[in-house]
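REVIEWER CHECKLIST
Item 1: Sequence provided? yes
Item 2: Single chain? yes
Item 3: Sequence as submitted:
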Amino acid sequence: MAEAAPHVVDECRGVLFVYSDGAVVRRAGPGFATPVRDDGSVEWKDAVFDEARGLELRLYRPRDRGGRRLPVFFYYHGGGFCIGSRTWPNCQNYCLRLAADLGAVVVAPDYRLAPEHRLPAAIDDGASALLWLAAQAREGGDPWVAEAADFGRVFVSGDSAGGNIAHHLAVRFGTAAGRAELGAPAVAVRGYVQLMPFFGGTAPTRSEAECPDEAFLNRPLNDRYWRLSLPEGATADHPVANPFGPGAPALDDVELAPTMVVVGGRDILRDRAVDYAARLKAAGKPVEVREFEGQQHGFFTIDPWSDAAAELMRVIKRFVDSDGRFD
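Item 4: Structure as written out by the authors:
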């Protein structure tokens, strides 16, 4: 009997296809057509931050900065650790708006994706990108960055999976050793913005249990991302997914920088993010939640020019302009 031809066993948004023989096929772009809205007010370029792994990041800065040094704002893209890229138009549009509206140097790194590179690969790459920025503050750094950036005012944000990365970076660099690794006080993270962070757990939350199938991020896709990205045999209570799960590191002694957690009222991830913030706040950490009623997962990158996205931008700008203080 002839062997059956390999067939697709997992698929993510028409971009990632995993076959029965273990082969992985990716499409270079997203499964949707979105024009890039670049009016020329922001300049950008790509740079390599990990030559050994071929990883790049995209840098943005306002063309007219009046000779000022600008805060640095990291944006780690989403995609369930399985898809996404700094080059995708939704990421490009959001970063163009961040640079223009915040008046910031925006850093948008790529990172290794699952299932070819399972967690914690993406988190390690996120740290490498932040350390790359720190290196630019030293002699021999890239002048394009060094002449524009205020390295003492770094903010780290991430969307969905990127929000998860932001949490792990806050833990790693929220210790004396971590701050020294970055080169404090010359390089300092003033705050974190977790945009609908991608956390998991084996016990379903209410927002997961009640999530409709037609949601932009629904439960089958949510679970598929974890199955493809977690270490083989791990559950969603693994420490990279669940910050308070069995085996997760204690956060009592971590000096977290001020952290804003943004949630959408219709997002499957809402309840986990709200619980995450509540637990940290109860432990005395400077954490606040900003909820956008009626908004679904990723509303600000799906349409960066919507009224809700504009309000989010104003909230982030106040946070950055005040060096991590809450309203």
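Item 5: Key structural point noted by reviewer: The chain has a mean pLDDT of 95.
Item 6: Recommendation: ____
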